[in-house]
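Q: Here's a chain of 166 amino acids. Please give me its 3D structure as tokens.
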Amino acid sequence: MDIHTLRDLLVEQIQDLYSAEDQIISALPDMIDAATDSELQNALRTHLDETRGQKERLERVGTLLDVDPDGPGCKAMKAIIEEGDKLVNQGSEDDDVRDAAIIAAAQRVEHYEIAGYGTARTFAQMLGEQEVADLLSETLDQEKNADLTLTGIAEGHVNRQAIKGD
């Protein structure tokens, strides 16, 4: 897709986020299975459900913009997920260390999404696409909340428990 206008850039962002959400939906079940901390598992399950809704929300955005949200695959998310898999699987037999690695990987995903949704929302606002901006804001709030939840779990107990793995 050639990008000549801010609207073109918004469409590219929507397609990137749609691909990212699809990849996350595929990756989260493995993260849930690998996690041992029940609070972390519950947070990841909750976010999997939210992510399915976020993908549907992007489909509504595509309808509003009269574009197909399914575009070229998001290479950045693919790389982030691959790096996360490597981090989680590269060694530690210690459940707490693995849980800390899962949180680190998941937060990288969240930060990418926060940047993407914030940017797309701003583009939509600038283009007068308020309904699109509102849908993107809803997802942005969920992504920020997921990040805060993961931080709370990490700082609340997982990272302290992982220290004993040293």
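Q: Can you summarize the key feature?
A: The domain at 6-163 is CATH 1.20.1260.10 (Ferritin).
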